[in-house]
Amino acid sequence: MRDPFIAITASVRDSDIGMPRVVLEAGYLQAVRVARGLPLVFSPLDDEFTREHMFKLAGGLLLTGGEDVDPSRYGQAPDGARTVSPERDAMELTLLEQALERRIPVLGICRGIQILNVALGGTLFQDLFTQRGKDIDHDRYREFDGHIHSIRTDAPRRLAGVFEMDEFVQNSAHHQGIRDLSPELTAVAWAPDGLVEAVEYRAGGAAWTCGVQWHPERTIEEPTGTNRRLFQVFGQEARRTASLDPGG
Fold first, then answer.
1. Active-site option among 92, 110, 174, 197
2. What's the pLDDT score for residue 247?
3. Contact, 106 vs 60, CB < 8 A?
4. What's the rounded Cα separation, in Å, for the pair 74 and 95?
5. Are the beta carbons of 125 and 131 closer than 8 angstroms?
6. Which pTM does this prediction carry?
7. Which of 69, 114, 200, 234 would you label with 208, given CA atoms 20 to 30 Å apart?
8. Angle at which helices 226-244 and 26-34 pack, to 10 degrees?
9. Is 197 assigned a catalytic role?
10. Domains of the chain from N-terminus onward
């Protein structure tokens, strides 16, 4: 069975030489290697023709962390959202729609779980600290390698092979999170303050589609093995889907 191409979404940022640069943390590339996949990097700089033809090669979609989702995407005015990228929102929503149509596996990380929720009709807390409470400081960006808070799981199906215990500890580097969960998603993990930390898409006939709020690519070798298994299962699903594709 061949190693599948995995589409990875990236940001575009300004640089000190006046030219835009494509930004992607190296951990995502390592994660695709753990998944035994071949990375295809997508950015808002791609034209539609290039993106369309590249995505036809992809056997899976990895939605990465980054900017806030534009609140207009879920019917709200700005109220705590920081840097947004309408171009990235448009790109990821299009890729996600195509992935769901093609029934290829999708994994959303941090921003990725948020764009997945918004795409399927959910909403977000634009700023957890001001809109939800201060019981847990989820925005621990400079401590992203650390174990920040525990995560409780309950009856996952697609993630059953990943979460081998009912509770474990993970990092936390986000100031937004799921507010109203999409009716098409099932929450399967929560932080101690009740914030949703993992979801599964269980529509009939859908491919393996999941999201997590923490950053597994930053701690692939964490002691419980949860993060490594997450990418391994994602890769297994991409290979299985590719084997079912007559053109693959």
1. 110
2. 53
3. yes
4. 18
5. yes
6. 0.95
7. 69
8. 60
9. no
10. 5-244 (3.40.50.880)
Q: Which tokens is 232 given?
A: 């391994």
Distance (Å, rounded) from C-alpha 116 to C-alpha 147?
25
Task: Kindly state the average pLDDT of the residues 215-222.
Answer: 94
pLDDT at 86 over 70: yes
Rounded CA-CA distance 29/6 in Å is 10
CA 185, CA 157: separation in Å to the nearest integer? 12
Q: Residue 29: helix, strand or coil by DSSP?
A: helix
> What tokens appear for 13 in the block?
């940022």
* Tokens 């990943």 sit on residue: 162
Among the listed residues 184, 197, 200, 217, the single catalytic one is: 217
The identity of residue 32, as a single letter, is V
Cα(142)–Cα(51) distance, integer angstroms: 33
Mean pLDDT, to the nearest integer, of 49-59? 96
Distance between CA 108 and CA 64 in Å, rounded?
6
Give the number of other CB atoms < 10 A from CB of residue 134. 9
- Give yes or no: 217 in active site: yes
- The Cα–Cα gap between 149 and 151 comes to 7
